[in-house]
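Let us walk through a complete example step by step. Step one is to write down the protein sequence. Step two is to encode the small molecule, zinc ion, as a SMILES string so that its atoms and bonds are unambiguous. Step three, shown after the inputs, is the structure prediction itself.
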Amino acid sequence: MQLIACPWCGPREELEFSYGGQAHVAYPSDPAALTDEQWARFVFFRDNPKGPFAERWAHSAGCRRWFTAVRDTRTHRFLSVGPLAASGSGATS
Amino acid sequence: MAEIQTATLTARHPLEGYRDLLEALSAELAPALALELGGLVAAVDLRVDPAGGGPAAVEQVVGGPLPTRPDTWTALPAGQALRLGPDEWLLTSAAAQPEDWEFAVDEAAAAHGGMAVDVSAQRTALRLRGGAARELLTTGCALDLRPRSFPHGRCAQTLFGQAAVVLVAHGGDDLQVLVRPSFAAHVVDRLVDAATEYRPDPSPESGPASWETP
Ligand SMILES: [Zn+2]
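Step three: the predicted structure of the complex.
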């Protein structure tokens, strides 16, 4: 099992993390204006690259914060880990 | 007309049924290992922007410093302040009533857009002492718990087996485990089982000692 470097807690076992899918999927600015097909594309369709992939991860068993990481889908290796996502009270540290 | 009976409810440690077992075990394993139940404390979960004036305002109320670095804790006059996340702390007090503790911290934090919630019943505490304490925890936890990596003043939210725990380092041979009451018996059972490793060689006459869990 590999270690994932949580931006807050440091290196922790992969078991402590949960996966949140593709990163940087923007919420539509005017959802009501979308057709069913466009909405389905936003909800269900994700990239599936062979190689580096920017993803959302949560440190569920640790600090419980979300962050973005780039993982190589061929090797399952983490290439980089971004900063923590902003939380409810606006603190990102 | 029936007379109304009133009773005072007293707080009881969720692992009260393990107290005798842990005492007997600790006596047998001394000085390598001692397991005991932690005290009941008032606890609040504080959420506040670390960059604003919130932490300083809370420090005034709790009478001690809040930890500034990730995964560290500081001592308060009658409790502890543990850093759980960038904008999250766990503040405990053995002296205050839970509702007073929550009110005082929340009032200080609210002025800075933060909040505090009473979580006194959320976690229960175990104390592990002795030269084998750290090694015992590694039977269910993958963190590097050697004193060099996890010295006095460190804490960590992690997993022990399948249970979410907060590990708190008080010293080289002194660790505290915070765990949800519903997982606490599971964690103690695992620790007691793992502690078999440290039993002295049984003499043939005495027969097997009973460590049957309640
Ligand atoms: Zn973390």
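Step four is interpretation. Chain A touches chain B through 20 residues (CB under 8 Å).
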